[in-house]
Amino acid sequence: ILNYDIMARFRRRTCIILLLFILFICSIMMALKTLRPDRAGFGDPFGLGLLPELQQRTVLLENKQNSLNRFQGDTVTRVSNFHSVAVNTMKASRSPANKPEEQLSPPNYNFHIFYYSWFGNPQFDGKYIHWNHPLLPHWDPKIANNYPKGRHNPPEDIGANFYPELGSYSSKDPSVIEAHMKQMRSASTGVIVLSWYPPGMADENGEPTDDLVPVILDYAHKYNLKVTFHIEPYKDRDDRSMYHNVKYIIDKYGGHPAFYRHKTSTGRLLPMFYVYDSYVTIPEIWANLLTVSGSQSIRNTPYDALFIALLVEERHKHDIHRSGFDGMYTYFATNGFSYGSSHHNWASLKAFCDSNNLMFIPSVGPGYIDTSIRPWNNHNTRNRVNGKYYETAFSAALLVRPEIISITSFNEWHEGTQIEKAVPKRTGQVVYLDYKPHKPNVYLELTQKWSEKYRKEQEQWLM
């Protein structure tokens, strides 16, 4: 009987140990998959659906290689639709930074961060803008029928999976703008990459925001930050309209002390423009603007600048080079979604850029989740893993020794890539994600940590 009891206890202990070991292995596998997700690519339904213009663009180039017709895409990938959590907007008047300006981390002008000023609420705008983002249907009607329709209803129900500490704020609120500048400065970023449409234009869910640029420049200057422009794919964007809009930006804002100019290897100080969805326009059109011999050439004029194209597919690198761009960036915070956003491709992209005198600007992000506006898209969610996903992205970026790192994003709440402060929030129908067990400023602190690490490593690269 004694031997039987001993054997029974031994078997129980062995089973428990085996079960714990299996659970440990499963948790490790899940964590690795989150940090290194399988490539979604554009061959799967999600990739093709979010970027339908890529399919059309491919057909256009294969069948009409010599045509100069541009095709207009719906650019669903980064839809500028958002719904605001109309929480008491008076929260915005609270100062989110505890340290005075002189105690904040020094700005790192090699850390560029994407910023959106398209949010609105009734107090400042007479209505909610972007916080009430519509739910986007799946392109397959059979799948779309399985998901809810309509739009979000702020303030309790906003178009985001996280909830801002400042509530469903207005981008026009001066206290919000200042709070954002303090947060970006505390994160030791240096250059704000401001989403921009020409005067009178906006994304399909927003309102024109060019009038807000002078205010953003003033507050950025207060915190020793610089501002550059992320030119969105506005209607009829081509070589001629781009020439006029670049001229407009430089003439109107180029004299402001917060206007960003990048020092090139030859010592020139040039403005910089990120061009979102640049691949929508064929290289021949861009070459008219960006090459010395182009019919609309901006080169060697007072409006010359550094133009950075979006790279999504691998073949885009050749188009970018032929177009006359000065560099490329990857934007998406979804490791594995596109060729450009996949960390393991950054080394080869950097090598291509180095050999062709181009800048390579990898984009890192803290995670990705957009199921508040695309409820069918959990396939491309990238869990934050309490900050580990973000640090993995930074680590991958530093390995290729880039001149600049871009961050997606400060406040793209619809796609859950924000590093802005977020707080726990529960309503009758919605439980928002949050940064627990960390504080609301955890991603600002992680950015500051990697900014300092980048500075130290860059000193070694230059030795």
UniProtKB/TrEMBL annotation:
It comes from the Eukaryota. GO terms for cellular component: Golgi membrane. It is found in: Golgi apparatus membrane. Gene3D superfamilies: Glycosidases (3.20.20.80). Its EC number is 3.2.1.130. It is a single-pass type II membrane protein. It catalyses: N-{alpha-Glc-(1->3)-alpha-Man-(1->2)-alpha-Man-(1->2)-alpha-Man-(1->3)-[alpha-Man-(1->2)-alpha-Man-(1->3)-[alpha-Man-(1->2)-alpha-Man-(1->6)]-alpha-Man-(1->6)]-beta-Man-(1->4)-beta-GlcNAc-(1->4)-beta-GlcNAc}-L-asparaginyl-[protein] + H2O = alpha-D-glucosyl-(1->3)-D-mannopyranose + N(4)-{alpha-D-Man-(1->2)-alpha-D-Man-(1->3)-[alpha-D-Man-(1->2)-alpha-D-Man-(1->3)-[alpha-D-Man-(1->2)-alpha-D-Man-(1->6)]-alpha-D-Man-(1->6)]-beta-D-Man-(1->4)-beta-D-GlaNAc-(1->4)-beta-D-GlcNAc}-L-asparaginyl-[protein] (N-glucan mannose isomer 8A1,2,3B1,2). GO terms for molecular function: glycoprotein endo-alpha-1,2-mannosidase activity. Keywords: Golgi apparatus, Hydrolase, Membrane, Signal-anchor, Transmembrane, Transmembrane helix. Belongs to the glycosyl hydrolase 99 family. This is Glycoprotein endo-alpha-1,2-mannosidase.
